[in-house]
Each structure stands twice: as C-alpha cells, then as structure tokens.
UniProtKB/TrEMBL annotation:
Protein name: CCA tRNA nucleotidyltransferase
SMART domains: HDc
Domain HD: 306-440
Source domain of life: Bacteria
Keywords: ATP-binding, Coiled coil, Magnesium, Metal-binding, Nucleotide-binding, Nucleotidyltransferase, RNA repair, RNA-binding, Transferase, tRNA processing
Keyword Metal-binding found: yes
Ranges in coiled-coil conformation: 434-461
Biased composition (Low complexity): 12-33
Necessary cofactors: Mg(2+)
Gene3D superfamilies documented for this protein: Beta Polymerase, domain 2, cca-adding enzyme, domain 2
Amino acid sequence: MDPVPFPEQSSAPHAEQQPEPQPAQRPEQQRVPLDPRDALQAALEDARRRAVDALTPVMPLLTDLGRVFEDAGHELALVGGPVRDAFLGRSSADLDFTTDAHPDATAALLKRWGDAHWEIGRDFGTIGARKRLGDLDVVVEVTTYRAESYDASSRKPEVSYGSDLVADLSRRDFTVNAMALRLPSLDFADPHDGLRDLAAGLLRTPGSPESSFSDDPLRMMRAARFAAQLGLHVAPPVVAAMTGMAGRIAIVSAERVRTELEKLLLAPDPVPGLRLLVDTGLADHVLPELPALRLEIDEHHRHKDVYEHSLTVLRQAVALEEQPDLVLRLAALLHDIGKPATRRFEAGGGVSFHHHELVGAKLVAKRLRALRFDKDTVKAVARLTELHLRFHGYGDGDWTDSAVRRYVTDAGPLLQRLHKLTRSDCTTRNQRKAQRLSAAYDDLERRIERLKREEELDAIRPDLDGTQIMGLLGVGPGPVVGRAYKHLLALRMERGPLGEEAAVAELRSWWAQQPEQRAG
C-alpha cells in the first residue's frame, strides 16, 4: 500500500506555527531538552505512521467504496472517530463516512456494494451497510453532509443537507473528531487542526464551545468522556463553557446521559472525566451524589475526604479487574454515598456514619433508576453497596464457619465483585494497617475456598427439598413448606451439612412445635 498522504503541514488556522527544521546537534548538545515544537512535530509524525498501520487492513475496502461513490459522481470521506482512532493506532470494524450524496442515492449505492444494508437512520441522513472483508465483518455508516440548526429547548437537530465537506466538519463536536480522509484519493482534510490537537493531547471545539454546547449539551458529557478515554486535556475555554452552561444538560434524556456516563466509567482511567464533571458542575445535574461526597473537613480532620477516597477506591477496583466491569466500577464509585446523610459528630470528638451502607444502597438504586440503568445493574450495585462493610470485624477473629457461609450466601453471584470492592475500599496510608486488612481478607478467602470444597457453598440448600418435606409432614404446597424449608436452611447455614437422617429428625422436632400441630 502506498503511504497515506497526510500533509506535512496542516491547512488549519494554526498552520503558521509549524516549527522550522532544526539544525543537527553536536554531540555535546545531545542532552539539551527537546524544544516543545520539536516534540509536537515528532508526535505528529508518530501519529501519521500509526494511522497508516491502523488503516492498512481496511484500505482495500476504503478505496473500493470510495471508487463506487466517485464513479457515481459523488464525494466520500472517512470521518470522525475512525480517523481519530487511526492516528492513535487503533483499528475499528465500524467505519463512519460522510458524502454529498443524498440518502436515496447513498442507499442505492450501498445496496449494490454491501452484503446487507439498512436505512434506520435515514431521517438523519444515515444509511448503514455490512461488508465482509477477509476475516473482518465491517460495518459502515454513510451520512450526507449536514448543516444543522437547533431549537434552544431541544438537542434534536433540524436536519438540512449540505454540499461541502469542510462545512460538515465544522459542525462536529471537537477538533479531534473533525478530521477526514477523502476517498479514494486519500487526501487528508483537517480544517480545524485536529491532528495537532490530538498530538498535543488537547480537546477543543471547532467553533466557540458556547455555540457547540448550546446546540448539543450532550457534548459536555462527551468532553468528560474523552478526557477519560483518550487522556486529553480539556482546553480552558471548553471548561469555562461547560461550567457556565452545565444546567443545559437538563434537556438531554436520561438514557443519553447514561450512555455517556457508562462510556466514561469504562474508560482506562475514568477519574479525570469524573473530576471534570464535578468541577464544572455537570455532576450536580447528572450524578449529584458524587459532588455531595465532598464533605466539609472539620478542623481536627476527624474523617477522611470521602470524595477523594471514592475516586481512589474506583482506581484500585479498576486495577483488580480482569476486564472492564461496569457494576464493580459503579459500586466502587458510589459505595459511600450514604455518608453525607448519616454523618454525626459524636460527643467524644469522633465522627460516625452509622448504617450508611443501608442508606447508600437505597440512594444508589434511586439514582441508577433515574438514569435508566437496567434492573440487573441497579440490583447488583445496590447490593454491593449494602454489603461493602460486611467484612469489617473479621480481623477480630470471631467469625464462625456459619458467618462465613452467610457472607457467601448473601453475596451470591456477586461474591467475586464483593472481594474486589472490599479490597479496593482500603485506602489507608498506614502500611501496617493496610497489610493487616489484606492478610485478614486473604484468610477469609482461604476459608471460603475450604468450605466450598467441603460443602459446595456455591449452591447452599437444606438437606431436604420441598418434595421430601411435604412427604414427611403429610402436607401439600403452601406456607408450612416454606417455613420448614427456611428452618432447615438456617440449620444448614449454622452447622453445615446435616445429612438426611439428622435433617429428618430436626424437621420432625420443628414440626412438633408448630401451631398447626399444637392445635391438633
């Protein structure tokens, strides 16, 4: 493949800042710090090389699709995220394109070119298709150039079609997403210097951020997400606009906000994005429980900064994952949100947060439901919040096997997540205390594994099932069977496996004490 002809010098407004070639250094000058302009130029060259490597597998498809549109008299360009990701050395099976062809023409072309096509996004000028390329199953979406206008009370655009690529790029959210690769010529279009911003690690908007966020307030959430996903520094004017316009996020649906929040939380390091949400005031509108953790620290520092503690717990939980886990990350971030409501200053000078885990579990469920999270996620995060303190006290050595069984049973399928959350919740700087807590939890996990081997803890149930209970008591289905089952389960939890003979004896003894028998 011929190298992608990305220009050595951008045609963007900052192009005049392109550094001049530097003279070769003498040996004694080699340790002189690199001029920032040289560092930026090196970063640009690295980005170009990464883009060539990333696009190589799909280049036959890009040029082929480009020729299909060119032969029909239309323009086509790879645009947005796939271009940005290519410069970051990332490949994508989902490719976004823009064109001057109207949706009817695009649909006709993709129908002939692809293995399948769909028109779900036709109202917004988008037609999709799927094409098999060797081992890759590539999805493409082609959108007609747009020139959008917005109603101030809504983030839904009134779509009108344009005829110019540069104008289309100008309406995009950030400069790093306003780059395009014309096809099939492979000419690089970067009217807003997005590549330079990407190389410099900077997030800017193509026009004024106030205008951009007024048009689409969800872009403020995206700024926080890109800070987390891509490690970009958000430009001060963008931060200022987010701060001044945070309240406008209220017109965005909870579902759209949740989607952006999920993407932020699943980023390699979600903390910078969360800090941006809190610092700009956006979190006050979308996740108010998070900034509420910034409890005023009294002059005697009788409790730790709960907000900073929660961010640290999140980072430590991320470090324990095998793969990104939204439930664990939500629980790590929100496990202490019951503390503001339960904080009490005690007479002796201490601070307490009694039952904050129970209050927190209710607050977690309420907030996640408001954000339209699915029922399973809401239930799991609330349960982890409720259980996150259960381990405390184990190190005192007074947990019986019965207590361990109950810990496992109460956690159920969340046990491995509870392990990670509990370990992450230790943020003390006291190394001796941290080592003591870690050793105690190591011991608990060993006991759990031993009991699992001996007693099949993952499926704890009574020694007699419902059918056996009904046969022994001579009763049919009903409340009596449920009560008997719970009694035998409690014995199983307390004493371990009883065996069938002992379980039958316990059941008969229990039954003799029941009101139904005494009344008879």
